[in-house]
Amino acid sequence: MITQRQRRQIVNQVDGTSVGLSVLVGAAISLGLIELLASPLEQIASVDTQILAVQTTLLASPLLISLLLLLRDGGVLVSQGALLAGRHPRWLHRLWLVQVMPLVLASLVLALYLLAAAMVSATLTQPERNNIGELATLLGSVAPTTFALALVKTAIFAALTLWISLQQGARCQRLGLRPMAALSRAISLTMAVLLSLDLGLVLAFDPLLIRQ
Asked: Which residues, 6+ apart, have CB-to-CB distance to 32 below 8 Å?
């Protein structure tokens, strides 16, 4: 059950800046992939190219959203962790428990904005066609299992991003390191963990590899 305080936290985190960045990233990735994949001789991208670009953006969305969260909240989270450096580790865990649900839900909302922007921008590459029908085609091309896995990964990655940032803030404070060093360590460690986990999930759940 989401409390009133958690609702306010979610609303605060899904602000105009975060939504705008998610939309820009989704559109930029989708259009960039379409331009890269389309043949130089084609005037417009094919539907297959659009579908591939949207699905690739969907697969990359958990990492992209985590990176956006780090850029937006990394400094604040590291500072919060540093404040609890002298206390028992359970205080850090309690802070994580208080913040994880709003952050996870906010990351899922941002992931949906990112995917919607990728689809809408993909339809704009064929202005002479029926954009509504084309958008329906792109929606139908996304397998439910792939979509669900992307959302699950987004939630897990957001939770890990929060924990690593808090933990690195506390650790660097105990070691006497500067706040910028803590933020740098949090970003590098988070990206290393998430990329490794993402690779493991791809190897474990990718349908093509499973069929082989």
From this structure: none
pLDDT tens track for 129-171: 666 777 888 888 888 888 998 999 999 999 999 999 998 888 8
Torsion of CA 27, 32, 37, 40, to 10 degrees: 120
pTM of the full structure: 0.84
CA distance 50 to 76: 38
Whole-number Å distance between alpha carbons of 79 and 182:
9
Q: What is the pLDDT of residues 186-211, one digit of tens each?
A: 899 999 999 999 888 777 765 544 44
Residues with Cβ < 8 Å from 193, sequence gap 6 or more?
Answer: 160, 164
